[in-house]
Amino acid sequence: MSEPTYTQTRQVKIIRNEALLEKAERLKPVLIEKQAVPTRLVDVQADPNAIHGWKVTGIGNPEELTHRALGKGDSVIVDFGDHRVGYVSFNIVSVGSPPDAPLKLKLTFGEMPVEMAEPFSSYEGWISSSWLQEELLFVDVLPAAIKLPRRYSFRYLKLEVVDSSQKYKVSFQDLNVRTVTSADGAALQPLNHADPLLQKIDQVSIRTLEDCMQDVFEDGPKRDRRLWLGDLRLQAIANYETFRSNDLVKRCLYLFAGLPDERGRVAANLFIEPTAIADDTYMYDYSLFFAASLYDYYEASGDQEALEDLWPTARKQIDLAWDYTSGGLVNVQSDWWPFIDWHPDLHKQAPAQGVLIYALKKGIRLAEALGGSEGEQAAVAWKKAVFEAEKAAIEHLWDESQGFFVSGEERQISWASQIWMVLSGTLATEQNQTLLLRLLEQKPKIGMTTPYLHHHLVEALLISGLRTEAVAHLKGYWGAMIEDGADTFWELYDPADKSFSPYGNHLINSYCHAWSCTPTYLIRKYNL
Amino acid sequence: MSEPTYTQTRQVKIIRNEALLEKAERLKPVLIEKQAVPTRLVDVQADPNAIHGWKVTGIGNPEELTHRALGKGDSVIVDFGDHRVGYVSFNIVSVGSPPDAPLKLKLTFGEMPVEMAEPFSSYEGWISSSWLQEELLFVDVLPAAIKLPRRYSFRYLKLEVVDSSQKYKVSFQDLNVRTVTSADGAALQPLNHADPLLQKIDQVSIRTLEDCMQDVFEDGPKRDRRLWLGDLRLQAIANYETFRSNDLVKRCLYLFAGLPDERGRVAANLFIEPTAIADDTYMYDYSLFFAASLYDYYEASGDQEALEDLWPTARKQIDLAWDYTSGGLVNVQSDWWPFIDWHPDLHKQAPAQGVLIYALKKGIRLAEALGGSEGEQAAVAWKKAVFEAEKAAIEHLWDESQGFFVSGEERQISWASQIWMVLSGTLATEQNQTLLLRLLEQKPKIGMTTPYLHHHLVEALLISGLRTEAVAHLKGYWGAMIEDGADTFWELYDPADKSFSPYGNHLINSYCHAWSCTPTYLIRKYNL
Predict the structure, then answer these.
(1) Superfamily of domain B33-181 in the CATH hierarchy
(2) Residues whose CB is less than 8 angstroms from the CB of residue A265 and which lie 6 or more positions away in sequence, other chains included
(3) CATH of domain A18-31+194-525
(4) Which UniProt keywords apply (chains A, B) (predicted)?
(5) What is the model's pLDDT at position B212?
(6) d(CA B121, CA B160)
């Protein structure tokens, strides 16, 4: 994800904890490299029924690439058969007279057909066009062995000879990608599900997770390529059910804990290169998820060292978050705003209240695991806080007449508010069931815009015993993405508006995105 | 230079002479590196009185670059104070929040203000746009140390932030160029001329030569960056008066001799990378210049080894050229066309006849230097050829009534025909004087388009005893280039049409070009 424009940039003072950062450094994974080659040559064509209006069709074997001579204005699109994250290399040879001018070559990488079809110059969204994966190369000497130094996230690659000369053309040889991931398939158990769609959804989820698992859990290998706490939390729980790379989760938690601001808050995301750097974006819900994620990690690993090392950070997030309440009710503040979802009109108070209670409850289990006077003291304080927060939620956010949680002065009824209040466990299971069935039936206008919130809906259904509805929604939503051609699951997917982008243009969306990888967790954890 | 479109590409069989190529390899020069830094920041503005309609004006000290923060759409033009050939490096640091998107940076290099002003996308000439010196860089991690791997020929560099993000800008530090040349100034004698314009012209000539002296004598470091025989001949004679890098001339002659076609012809030009390769372009006059250049080299160096090694190649060019005559008159053929000059309407027979006789006479001196029966035999044959060719020229090309040499059925009177027939020494000196004075007075319509032909005019004037006219022309032509802002002399310069380009657009012209460097030769050799 990328933060919206209304985020204020401010001078943040970071208090580095070198001991934690050193432990994170020692947990740096070794990347596993494999080679992948093109599977076919393709053409991209307009198709009103295809996602974004574009589809690819095969037009030749990859071997033909070697024999094709491309001159000025010629291009070819190569399909690597599946989503790939890695480093591309190829050889270029000249055909005709000796090359009497440099070769000007444009490369365009795309996760989706639309990236092969719509010119990147048409992009006018509000986040940087530099995310669009392209290169302009000038090759002075042929033959040339090209090893591109940047990592790309793609399935398709368009090779376009912008100019050569009247005397020579070029052919491409040995085109390949050295893929990288830190996910080791050794721990992965086959699913063998009776339902082929769930089987397929599980497999695509795992590919998504795998391609996002690099030096850290990245949110998306195309964009933003960094470590977001909200994505990490979901990647981690998917990982416990699949690759079980617990050390990678640990590394990420230590990185966040190593770079708090002067108030002790963890950043919403970290940059990893050239060194770990906290972004100056702070999110209320994401900070609270540090505590939740540490509890999930402890539960999966039993790692006492991490519990003790990271406890102060987890406690700090909850205590600070509690300071942003009055009378047990979250005060949404612009200096620590909750993300929740990308919906532009979403009122955040009620869902943030849900997140707070959810995190407090995970925090209590964490405190109990820690034990000692410190743990006990925190557990007591947070139980009191849960009581107050739940009471306040019922008193101020629950609308008995409508049967929904509401948010703000205009008493907004959103999907997000219901989902997070269910996940908070404020109501009894039976009440949650009723609430969720009402939600599914009445479909309030303020809907869900991301797979991230769809995940939380499915999990809310599951913990409320609405298994049938959960499976139906999971299959409906992620299955539709597969139907629309997903090799990996997408950052954004609104079945009612398939070109939706919170960034102003679907070209910039990430089509392999961490927070969309959770079906494998939901399927495996809940034995769907 | 670049060959025109009507050149036919054909399959050429090259007979490699490894012994000669090995000697060439051993003569490979060590490049001398120096560092140059920006001298100021500039702006480019429209000015109808400036060359191409553009002039630069200083707007700041180079130190300001470090303190300027450039965001999306911002650019800055840096002036390196003089023409530079070399490798550029700089550091980029971010300003503001941590960089949350790659930096998309466009670099535009220019020898002339026009390259900073007119977008390269406007170029529609017939030779490759890939010669226009630009780069599009995506920098994923900041700060970054950028070392561009390609060599550029430039004075100006535009740094343009195409995109960064809303959260950060960038500054540039330590911008510098590591210049390269194989010209060693140690042998260079100061001129100290009383005439400041001749002094300046000499200096600019030497800078031009210096920047073209690389691994071989290049025609132009911007374009085409290769070894053309016609340029080599002029660079060599300028070199004998200045840097005296005789081994570099020798290396180039061995390279040409090492890569003849199956008929024994030397190519008009060679590519040097990845290995020495003969271009499939053959030019009648350029081939003959191999013999002339070998004689010049022998005269400058007294190198007996080179004379003996390269004699067979020189002889072959002359003998083959003679085969393209009938009745002593050159038959211009499309498979071995004479270049002479870029004028599109120039009829080539008469000037080619001049070149043939000129080369035969140099060949005779070469044969006499070689001696032995081989030398004697060739000298005798070529003296007979000179006699026939001169006789044929007088009979068929000289128009007594008009007092000019004519060419072709339409009896075209061109500057080139007169110049080359004077240089051939067919007429007596007094007749040449009269002819040249008539030429200067009557100014035939088929004029001169290149400094290459202007050089030959000045030398024709000098060998005909028209010293005043020679100096006047030299100062008028090359002086005007300086007046128009030349740091190094240009490939093309037509004072009547200053944007003339045989390639369809002045952006692609080379503004540091070998064949324009000869004033230092003319001034020093003839003590002007």
Answers:
(1) Galactose-binding domain-like (2.60.120.260)
(2) A282, A287, A316, A317, A320, A336
(3) 1.50.10.10
(4) Hydrolase
(5) 98
(6) 15
Q: Which of A190, A105, A186 is nearest to A148 (CA)?
A: A105
Alpha-carbon gap: A3 to the closest alpha carbon of chain B (Å):
10
Kindly provide the b/e burial profile for residues B433-443, where b requires at least 16 CB atoms within 10 angstroms of the residue's own CB.
bebbeebbeee
**Beta strand pairing call for B144-147 and B54-60:** unpaired
Which tens digits make up the pLDDT trace of A322-348? 999 999 999 999 999 999 999 999 999
Domain B18-31+190-525 has CATH 3.90.960.10: no
Nearest to A242, CA basis, from A185, A181, A295: A185
Give pLDDT tens digits for B440-477: 999 999 999 999 999 999 999 999 999 999 999 999 99
User: Would you tell me which residues 242-271 of chain A have a C-beta closer than 8 angstroms to some C-beta of chain B?
Assistant: 271
- CB nearest B163 (choices: A130, A142, A166): A130
Alpha-carbon torsion A125, A128, A134, A140, what sign?
A: positive
Contact B166 A100 (CB under 8 A): no
The predicted pLDDT at position A11 comes to 72
d(CA A106, CA B280): 28
Q: Does domain A32-181 have CATH number 3.40.50.300?
A: no
Going from N- to C-terminal start, the domains of chain A cover 18-31+194-525, 32-181
8 Å CB contact between A230 and A283: yes
Alpha helices in B40-195 (DSSP H): 64-67, 113-117
Contact residues, chain A, for B96 at CB < 8 Å: 9
Nearest to A104 among B101, B130, B138 (CB): B130
DSSP B49: T
**A138: which 2 tokens?**
């000038």
Tell me the C-alpha distance between B166 and B245, whole Å.
54
Asked if the C-beta of B73 comes within 8 angstroms of chain A's C-beta atoms, the answer is: no
CB contact under 8 A, B224 and A2: no
**Which ipTM score applies to this complex?**
0.95
3-state secondary structure of B263: coil
What's this model's pTM, rounded to 2 decimal places?
A: 0.95
Contact check, Cβ <8 Å, A100/B279? yes
Measured CA to CA, the distance from residue B489 to residue B513 in angstroms comes to 6
Interface of B with A in 334-373 (CB under 8 A): none
- Residue A277's closest CA among A86, A480, A12, A6? A12
> Is the CB of B94 inside 8 Å of chain A's CB atoms?
no
Identify the residue among A167, A218, A219, A255 best suited for mutation to test binding to B, counting B beta carbons within 10 A and taking the highest: A167
B13 shares contact with chain A (CB less than 8 Å): no
Q: What is the 3-state secondary structure (H, E, C) of B440-506?
A: HHHCCCECCCCHHHHHHHHHHHHHCCCHHHHHHHHHHHHHHHHHCCCCCCCCCCCCCCCCCCCCCCH
* Contact list, B142 vs chain A (CB under 8 Å): 274
Amino acid identity, residue A107? L
Q: What is the largest CA-CA distance in chain A?
A: 82
Measured between CA atoms, the residue of chain B closest to residue A164 is: B128
Lowest-confidence pick of A155-159, A186-190, B152-156: A186-190
